Amino acid sequence: MPDSDLRKTVIELERSLDREKALRDATRRVALRSLALVSAHVPALEGTVRDVNHALEPGARDIGWLDRLSGQLADAVRSSDHSEDLAEAILNVVHRGLQGFEFLDSELDALTRAVDHRDKMEIERALGRLFAVLHDKCQQAMSEREELTQVVGEIWHRLEDVDTALSEDEARGQRARKSVSELHAGISGDVEDIRGRVLSGNDLPTLRREVSLGLDRMITRVSHFRDAQETELRAAEERNRALRSKGRSLEGQVQALRSRLQQARAEASRDSLTGLPNRNAFEQRLRELSGALAPGGTASLLVWDIDHFKAINDQYGHSAGDKVLRAVAEILAEGVQEPDFVARYGGEEFVMIIHRGPDAAHAQAETIRQSVSHLVVRAGSKRLKVTISAGVTGIDANASPEAVFDAADHALLQAKKHGRDRIERAGS
């Protein structure tokens, strides 16, 4: 081979080696960075980056690192599967532990569907709704329990007073029976004494005097007995008067409790932060509407959700989040008129019933969405821009309220997945 061809071949080999070296270095950098990223999330891969680094060093001949890497990757896979199994187990425990609470049935069904879909966003929202409902019910139950405890305590004290009065009446009856017995015995003795004196007496003036003294003793006994009975009777009347007064007081307390409970139930249908009706009121309204909607009648349901609300709470605090909720609630309330209905469903979610078909409801909702997009909320020195997404569906009189809500909720999820700050219609 001529020298020129040989030199040319050597040059080409050197260039090829340079390319192979550059490719190997690039592969090494990518491998190291990829494994570093994975090892940050999978503890089982700790140390793998170091092994690969040594293995890829120039001149390294040990290939045992491949076996070690394979084993570590297998452990990571098993660990990942275990984490998935653990998440499933936790969700199953939540589901089983809350079975039997009828007011949670729809939320548990939603959680089951979310787990089946393996949709993280859907699971988070389902869990949030479930525990929000549970929290609200527990608060309502505790409030009613405190009210009932107070009245039961009052009733208990009143029953103690009644028991004391009955005991006093029983003792008074026993004393009365004893007094009657003593009066009878005394009068009988006086009569026998008079009779004896009449039979043995011969002197009429003396007999008259003895009889008169005997009758005076009987009159005195009767007077003492009457006075004692009148005293007992007055005491009993005073006790009865006090009991009647306490009974009227207890009746007033029971009535006040009934009013407080009615007020508490009314407040239980209203959200304290925004002033809007709450989830309980919405579910009742949706049930009533589904049952009363005439064939061919038109109404639509919208489920709203403030975009990136968690980030607002995390970055600016819950006070800023509360301001956003109140401001959005005000815009939503202004966007409807009777007989339309808007409520806070929970967290950053709102629901709306519009007595128009889905097309008209979508257009109305679009106007509301634009109003929210112009909203600016101050959080200290920051000015927060707010957007909102919604899902809309027609209310079918033949469909269950749960199915109607699920359709709108699924449309909302699509709006979230398609970029937020938008309205999606169910089935589109």
Could you explain how this protein is built, in words?
This protein has eleven helices and seven strands. With about 425 residues, it is of the alpha+beta class. It folds into three domains: about 5-95; about 150-270; about 280-425, Alpha-Beta Plaits, CATH 3.30.70. Helix 2 (about 50-55) packs antiparallel against helix 3. It is elongated and about 185 Å long. The mean pLDDT is about 75.
Keywords:
alpha+beta, 7 strands, 428 residues, 9% strand, two-stranded antiparallel ribbon, 5-stranded mixed β-sheet, elongated, Alpha-Beta Plaits, 73% helix
Can you tell me the CATH class of the largest domain?
Alpha Beta
Write down the overall mean pLDDT.
76
Q: What structural class is derived from the secondary structure elements?
A: alpha+beta
Low-pLDDT stretches: none
CATH homologous superfamily of the largest domain, by name? Answer: Reverse transcriptase/Diguanylate cyclase domain
Reading the helices and strands in chain order gives HHHHHHHEHHEEHEEEHE
What is the count of structural domains? 3
CATH architecture of the largest domain: 2-Layer Sandwich
End-to-end Cα distance: 74 Å
- Taking all Cα atoms into account, the compactness measure Rg is 45 Å
Helix content: over 70%
Q: What name is given to the CATH topology of the largest domain?
A: Alpha-Beta Plaits
Number of helices, counting only DSSP H or I runs of 4 residues or more: 11
* Beta-strand content bin: 5-15%
Largest sheet: 5 strands, mixed
- Looking across the biggest beta sheet, what order are the strands in? 2-3-1-6-7
Total strand segments = 7
Give the overall silhouette.
elongated
